From TrEMBL:
It catalyses: D-ribulose 5-phosphate = (2S)-2-hydroxy-3-oxobutyl phosphate + formate + H(+). Binds 2 divalent metal cations per subunit. Magnesium or manganese. The keyword Cytoplasm does not apply. Catalyzes the conversion of D-ribulose 5-phosphate to formate and 3,4-dihydroxy-2-butanone 4-phosphate. SUPFAM superfamilies: YrdC/RibB. It is an enzyme of class 4 (lyase). It comes from the Bacteria. Pathway: Cofactor biosynthesis; riboflavin biosynthesis; 2-hydroxy-3-oxobutyl phosphate from D-ribulose 5-phosphate: step 1/1. Pfam families: DHBP_synthase. This is 3,4-dihydroxy-2-butanone 4-phosphate synthase. Belongs to the DHBP synthase family.
Amino acid sequence: MLNQKIEHAVAALKAGKLIIVADNEDREAEGDMIGLASQVTPANVNFMTKHARGLLCAPVTQQLAQHLDLHPMTTHGNDAFGTAFTISVDHRSTSTGISAFDRAQTIAKLADDTSQAADFYRPGHVFPLIAKAGGVRERGGHTEAAIDLAKLAGEQAAYICEVLQDDGHMARRPTLKQLAQRWQLDFITIAELREYLANRQQ
């Protein structure tokens, strides 16, 4: 049942769909909408910014961050959860960088094997996040969950956005499940993903 649930979510991502991933209720107790960077569309970026309403970010592997020269936003961060923001970027082919079309283009180019560091302006309107090498087994965050899912799909980059309630507060698990059902999106938890990955290693 667990294998089927995670594999269905990965298949949805590979098909260009978004999914919702919830972290542990004793951590941030939040949920993020997640998509594969290689499958990004302006429509999905617009959906995220309209319905999820959090900060649109783009998790990447450490190798991709090195290749694209994505440096940490700060070397003295004191974020309680250790979120590894880099300096924000826009792809050089964009205009102002903020439209759904421009952000989708930047995200897609982060996942493009032919992209080089010089192809991106800094700062920009998309916030790359560098995932820990050990994935959710090292850090139970949405950055790592997104990259673990991307790796299962054969990719190195994703895009994510926190899900807020209509009143502006963070959406918690009961609400996240309701929203996933309403929007017909797969719903998984980081704990489920961690268990799935552990089972694959056995």
